[in-house]
Amino acid sequence: MRAMWQTRSPMTVRGVLERLNDERDAPLAYTTVMTVMARLAEKDVLRRELNGRGYQYVAAVPDEASIAVRTVVRDFGEAALAQFVDEARADPKMLRRLRRLLEDEA
């Protein structure tokens, strides 16, 4: 994901593979990177678009925190949101921040 966030433009599996292998002693296999990117697309962490015979990928989330939140909400749904609100209620500073964020979106 770091490679995707750094470029901020669509990348192919080959492009990501080259970036990753530039920083490694033992190169990764094309199929390994392709599998991971396909799984990230299935989880809506990456978006992919058909480009010729292959795909181009872009990041669908801006950072690690977004991935964590998506995962928790996907796995626990409304219970996760309710717990988050309970946590915010227990911390006045967090509650004020949450209210500001909600007001900004309205």
Explain the overall architecture:
The chain is 66% helix and 11% strand. The chain is built from 5 helices and 2 strands, in the order αααββαα. A two-stranded antiparallel sheet has the order 1-2. The longest helix has 27 residues. The mean pLDDT is 94.
For this structure, the CATH topology of the largest domain is: Arc Repressor Mutant, subunit A
What's the order of the H and E elements? HHHEEHH
Placed side by side, the strands forming the largest sheet appear as 1-2
- The CA-CA distance between the termini, in Å, is 30 Å
| Strand proportion | 5-15%
Q: Specify the helix fraction band.
A: 55-70%
Give me the secondary-structure category: mainly alpha
Annotation keywords:
single chain, 106 residues, mainly alpha, Arc Repressor Mutant, subunit A, 5 helices, elongated
Brief overview:
The chain is mainly α.
Topology:
Elements lengths: L1 H6 L5 H10 L7 H13 L3 E6 L2 E6 L4 H27 L1 H14 L1
Antiparallel strand pairs: 1-2
